[in-house]
């Protein structure tokens, strides 16, 4: 028979052998008051409700009903064949061995915190073994008193940098205890007292190859733990995630890796106690843990494949585009004779199919166009809006805190006409640098628009180097976190799954399999 762990609201017991679990061998493991359960020869995993007696020196003084859960043995499962995967396997082998305590220094054994000694040894060995082949840059989000952070770095000479992020808003805020525990590491450690998702100095972190996340545990938190921190992670990195019993933890993490196009080369997990109960088991792996070995997709995020450029040049004075047919009705995208804009103007995009969590009244996206930044682009964008090009277009790409993208028309014939238009830059133009909230055309397209959602200097520098020049910015009410509620309400579950090339060629027919996409109902210029 295998071992089990038993947990209950009334009492806890240590792992026992199923074949011999009975009243006689249960007594030494039960907390006060002493509970004697009716004898069972074998116990299968699952929930139990049993009659119990409370006794003192063998004298029964009361009866009670006890509810508890018999769970499977806390066992790691997973696989991976890469070189770094071998480090995880070796570390688990040590941590699960009977001699694991011999691998722990007195510091690791004695530091106070909410982590088991077995888990501390596991972290320490990952950093130790990896540090024998390359410098380890360790990041931990949610450090509390430092039991896991200190264990990871303790006596590991291969550590280059260690970053700790916590705002110490929970569990009594033991910041000073943490700082005392890491003093001996000196300049190796950098401590950031901040909200993990409102972290202006994130760009100061570089090439993190071991990342332990134990911050807030909502789906969104875990999704952003990947997307927000992805640019500062190394080409290959080890990701360790606590509280893996929770469904939101698992799904948020996996979706974050997926939308960032990460390749999972190895994965291991352990779940404890009753996976559906908050807090899970009380064993040596606490509330479960997940470990990933991830290889990043090194190519820059492509906003769109370049399309052949037709010799149609948009000048400030005039534009000629032939008439095309949309949904069986003529839509005249003809020459527009209105003068090019010189003053800023606002374009309002009315949106549909926003997420249910979107606050009432936040169903329009407003872009302020600033002609002085990029005159020819401002003129061309104005013509697109006036011609009704963006009406019924989908917002087909969005990665939170990274970018969103729209501008492929439901009719591929319309897309082909406008996407082939070249929007030249002015020779004397000093390009506006990219930053969060700015808007521009995607290179190689005369109609697709990107909205930059990133505050990261590394990301914005990459956009600048790729020739993305903003012509406007998002304006409107922001929430306490500095985000636009309407953008947070845009459907994001597809990430980058939509094939831009197919959408460009097939139009709305291709999108039939993508339910709940957010659409632009109508775009119009605000009349002042």
TrEMBL record:
Domain PPIase cyclophilin-type: 365-492
Gene3D superfamilies attached to this UniProt entry: Cyclophilin-like (2.40.100.10), Vaccinia Virus protein VP39 (3.40.50.150)
Molecular functions per Gene Ontology: peptidyl-prolyl cis-trans isomerase activity
Stored Pfam families: Methyltransf_24, Pro_isomerase
PROSITE patterns hit by this protein: CSA_PPIASE_2
Listed SUPFAM superfamilies: Cyclophilin-like
InterPro entries: Cyclophilin-like_dom_sf (IPR029000), Cyclophilin-type_PPIase_dom (IPR002130), SAM-dependent_MTases_sf (IPR029063)
Protein name: PPIase cyclophilin-type domain-containing protein
């Amino acid at each position: 028979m295998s071992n089990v762990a038993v947990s209950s609201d009334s009492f806890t017991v240590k792992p026992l052998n199923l074949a011999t679990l009975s009243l006689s061998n249960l007594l030494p493991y039960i907390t006060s008051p002493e509970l004697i359960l009716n004898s069972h020869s074998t116990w299968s995993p699952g929930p139990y409700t049993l009659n119990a007696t409370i006794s003192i020196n063998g004298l029964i003084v009361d009866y009670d009903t006890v509810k508890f859960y018999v769970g499977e043995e806390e066992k790691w499962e997973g696989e991976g064949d890469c070189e770094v995967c071998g480090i995880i396997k070796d570390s688990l082998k040590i941590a699960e061995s009977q001699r694991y305590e011999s691998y722990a220094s007195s510091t690791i054994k004695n530091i106070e915190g909410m982590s088991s000694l077995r888990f501390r040894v596991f972290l320490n060995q990952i950093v130790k073994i990896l540090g024998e082949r390359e410098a380890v840059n360790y990041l931990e989000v949610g450090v509390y008193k430092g039991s896991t952070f200190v264990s990871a770095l303790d006596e590991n000479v291969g550590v280059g940098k260690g970053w700790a992020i916590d705002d110490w808003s929970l569990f009594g805020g033991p910041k000073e205890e943490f700082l005392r525990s890491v003093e001996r590491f000196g300049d190796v450690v950098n401590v950031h007292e901040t909200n993990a998702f409102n972290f202006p100095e994130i760009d100061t972190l570089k090439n993190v190859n071991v990342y332990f996340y134990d911050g807030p545990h909502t789906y969104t938190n875990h999704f952003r733990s990947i997307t927000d921190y992805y640019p500062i992670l190394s080409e290959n990195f080890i990701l360790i995630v606590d509280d893996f019993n929770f469904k939101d933890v698992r799904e948020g993490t996996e979706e974050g890796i997926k939308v960032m196009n990460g390749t999972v080369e190895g994965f291991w997990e352990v779940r404890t106690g009753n996976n559906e109960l908050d807090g899970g088991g009380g064993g040596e792996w606490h509330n479960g843990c997940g470990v990933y070995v991830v290889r990043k997709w090194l190519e820059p995020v492509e906003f769109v494949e370049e399309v052949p450029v037709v010799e149609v040049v948009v000048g400030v004075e005039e534009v000629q585009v032939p008439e095309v047919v949309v949904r069986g009705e003529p839509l005249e995208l003809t020459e527009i004779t209105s003068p090019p804009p010189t003053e800023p103007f606002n374009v309002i995009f009315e949106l549909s199919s926003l997420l249910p969590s979107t606050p009432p009244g936040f169903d329009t996206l407003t872009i302020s166009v600033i002609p002085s930044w990029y005159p020819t682009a401002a003129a061309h964008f104005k013509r697109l809006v006036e011609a009704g090009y963006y009406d019924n277009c989908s917002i087909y790409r969005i990665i939170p805190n990274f970018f969103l993208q729209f501008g492929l028309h439901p009719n591929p014939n319309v897309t082909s006409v406008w996407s082939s238009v070249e929007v030249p830059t002015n020779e004397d133009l000093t390009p506006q640098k990219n930053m969060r909230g700015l808007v521009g055309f995607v290179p190689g397209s005369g109609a697709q628009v990107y909205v930059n959602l990133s505050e990261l200097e590394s990301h914005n520098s990459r956009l600048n180097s790729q020739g993305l020049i903003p012509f406007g910015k998002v304006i409107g009410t922001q929430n306490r976190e500095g985000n636009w509620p309407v953008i947070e309400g845009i459907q994001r579950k597809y990430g980058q799954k939509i094939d831009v090339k197919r959408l460009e060629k097939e139009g709305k027919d291709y999108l039939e399999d993508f339910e709940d996409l957010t659409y632009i109902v109508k775009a119009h210029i605000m009349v002042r």
